[in-house]
Amino acid sequence: MEKFIERLKELRLAKKFTLVQLAKETGISKSTLSSWETGERVPSALAIITLAKFFGVTADYLLGLDD
Q: pTM here?
């Protein structure tokens, strides 16, 4: 999940979003997003799809399976 952590933070910062802003845009709580970025929790498949759609990338890219 290390690649996911790296890419989630990278994509969020590229949009210049805080965790609060990303939470508002995606409907995923700030605390959940934070726990993913710190590696404390693992996102569900539905959450990965939600984030991939929001950022305009594939789930494979977000997970580090594709470049």
A: 0.93
Question: Is 2-63 in CATH node 1.10.260.40?
Answer: yes
List the domain boundaries for the chain. Answer: 2-63
Tell me how far apart the alpha carbons of residues 41 and 15 are, in angstroms, rounded to a whole number.
Answer: 23
AA letter at 53: K
pLDDT digits (tens, 9 = 90+) for 17-61: 999 999 999 999 999 999 999 999 999 999 999 999 999 999 999
In one-letter notation, the amino acid at residue 39 is G
Task: Of 41, 35, 6, 7, give the one whose Cα is nearest residue 23.
Answer: 35
